[in-house]
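yo

u said u wanted the structure for the complex thing, so here. seqs first:
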Amino acid sequence: MKNLFRTKSDKMFDIFNYVFFTIAVIIVIYPLYFIVISSISDPLHVAAGKVVFYPKGFTIEGYEKVMTHDTIPRGYLNSIFYTCLGTFINLLLTLPPGYALSKKDLVFKNQIMVYLVIPMYISGGLIPTYILIKNLDMLDKIWSLLIPGAVSVWNIIIARTFFQSNIPNELWESAMMDGCRHTRFFLSIVLPLSMPLVSVMILFYGIGHWNAWFNALIYIRNRKLFPLQLVLREVLFFNDKNIDFIKDPEELVRRQRLAESIKYASIIVASVPVLMIYPFLQKYFTKGIMVGSLKG
Amino acid sequence: MSSTGLVPGVSVEKKLKSSFQVLNKTKSRSRLRYILNNCELYLFLLPVIVHLAIFSYYTIYGVQIAFRDYDPLKGFLGSPWVGLKHMRRFINSPYFFQTLRNTLVLSIYSLAIGFPIPVFMALLLNQMVSQRYKRFVQTVLYAPHFISTVIVVGMLFIFLSPTNGPVNSVIKMFGKEPVYFIGIPELFSSIYVWSGVWQSAGWGMVIYLAALSSVPVELHEAAIIDGATKVQRIRYVDVPTIMPTIVILLILNLGNLISVGFEKVYLMQTALNISTSEIISTYVYKRGLNGGEFSFASAVGLLNNVANLILLIIFNRVARSISETSLW
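structre next:
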């Protein structure tokens, strides 16, 4: 039936549509593809602009240098640790509060909501936060990366809305009749029924931690605690930004050559975990995030 | 209660008052019982409440150092009060005009380009005939959103590098001189905005696609029977349906007009482009944390936040009066 009503302008539209999105896909993919083929090509060919469609002078030298780099492996392990622990803390401070707020008869619910929402619009800003962290003696401690951003009111509200529309109150009533209390109900009934929400939260919090570098930039001085992104920043921007800090010319040349060959491989190594998980969780995007936010 | 209310000798008012008191008492008693019975719910909320008290409310309280000469030894309250000194100093300094202009240029430019493109793309993608191709396009276009800012800016530097970047290779192929894009102040805003489109236009579609999936099929069927083309259906069926979503997101974006994300701009800054790349948030960072001028930097940050809040309120009012859609 659809074809019956397809006018000439519709056909034109469809063709345009396919062409438009094919170009968009190419624009998005090509830079990523270029990094991949450059990472396994001879740096000399890359520098000469000869690597365009496929790798030239195959080598995995860049990856070897990443593996033996003095800070990247350490930063990688640090980031894995921060991501796991940080995401766990985030979930602990998002899902149970969201569940509590999803109860319609919760006493003081409105007062608590106002208390939660105010910080979404007003914040102390960079400097008072820095002073607070300093006074709490959290500078140069891993907690400065995990605790200050542990609460996301926005995500609590998304979780609340998800529970409200997906966990019928009758379920709680019948469980309560059988002597079940909130903690048990939350762990054995609500969580298993909310996997779309939980996976989206893990994805967003996890990627947030993996990609974070700003808090580390201001709070962490000890290089042994640097997360991967902060190490990457030095690796990627050395040539263009920090060049004036190195005085010795020989050191300069040596570091430049090393930096050049290591750039592409380190980008790949740092993005792979993110790009690997995300397609698996993609089917939950609409289910988890949208159900939560649109009805809110 | 209404029939027994009029007992002779007792005024109605008094009677009503005492019955309210009883009601209030039983209400507060049942409230207390609810809290005791459901204390777990409050334990669930407690860590969040404590966290916000420390990391949000206490820092809001600490904003007062913007009006004081902060001295770490004397604390927030002990430091001498200087009123608007720091704000005046900022407004009278040459940096005020420069950072405000750069911030506004970046935010208005990226709003003008970055806001409509996802709407447009979502409307088109929603009409895609092949569902499989649609899913493929989504998977690819969402991906850059998940790449870190450090890597995106790193890639930007690689691509635009004058010595071995692919863009300059093409320029050299045509026999022209290579261009050091990142170092040209006039190009900074365009590089910032268009790389932002590359990174987030795809992900920006998500919310519109979700809104579009709620368009009733019957509307489209009726429009098809009436001989509407796809373009007409987008114009008269899809756009009106997602209009509230567009307005809400527009208000949110306009409310953030004076706050440009710190991270990307800071990474893209070089000594050569600093004249157009120094924005309020990077200035606050440099003066405050690198320069140690805590009070001055928080005064600048506070000015920025207040201006944002006022903008948000104004745009919300405007939106409510013209389109009956608003945040609150």
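Chain A touches chain B through 94 residues (CB under 8 Å). Residues 1-59 of chain A form one domain.
cya
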